[in-house]
Amino acid sequence: MIELDTTWLRAVRPDRRVGHAIEAHVSIGSTNDRARELLAQPGSDGLVVVADEQTAGRGRRGRSWHSPAGRGLAVSVVLQPRLAAADAWTLPLAVALAAADACEAGGLVRLKWPNDLIDERGRKLGGILIETTVEDDRLSGAIIGIGLNTDWTGAEVPAEIRHRSISLAELARLPVDRVVLLDRLLDALSTEVAMIERGESPLDRYRLRCATIGTTVRVATEGGVMMGLAVDVGDHGQLIVESDGRRHELSSGDVIELREDPGR
Ligand code: BTN
What we know:
Bound molecules: biotin
Mean pLDDT: 93
Helix content: 10-25%
Oligomer: single chain
Radius of gyration: 18 Å
Strand order of the largest sheet: 1-2-3-7-6-5-4
Structural class: alpha+beta
Order of helices and strands: EHEEHEEEEHHHHEEEEE
């Protein structure tokens, strides 16, 4: 039997595009998988799935996403975007900006390309996994999965990622009210989605928030590893890296791993 958690329902706003209804689980495999099931249902645009615990949370590129029960925000939004497939690149940028805005209360939040949320020292606060479907030349559906480290303490984080992760509570030195955070996130997503659907590009604001620009990076792709200087985010959201006098344009799909290179 599915156990639902009514605490989260305080973040429901019936007149808001994203978050007019929330399905809140105590425990679920992956909120993205549940949101994908809901996408097929009529009127699912703007539905939100949230869970206290995910037992099979997924990250980008097939990685898993772990968060101790009750210590993170795991949320997925079902969206039927009014976007041409050619403008699909704007969605991850808009979502990253919305998530960064929602998290900013406790300290400066920046973006590691393409859409990790990090603090000023590059420690990861959260990540985004967007899965889309395209029909003809339209983006027919999107599942926007956002995982935020809300109340972790260092000791609860797996040893291998402890030095490069931080929670919002640690950043702000204050406990996080996850329902308030979810409400802010859904507000920010509603605003950003409306902007890109009106044709307003998120690019300039994304560039300002992007901590990757100006850093030397180590980029792993299917084709091999490259060191270079990240000089810009291009007109379609691609990362532009200069290496050995050549300019490389990388899409998020090309990049297996992107690290700031401490050796340079
Ligand atoms: C990443 O940094 O690799 C992206 C992590 C995305 C995790 C979120 S948590 C909510 C949603 N459900 C999932 O299974 N994954 C996303």
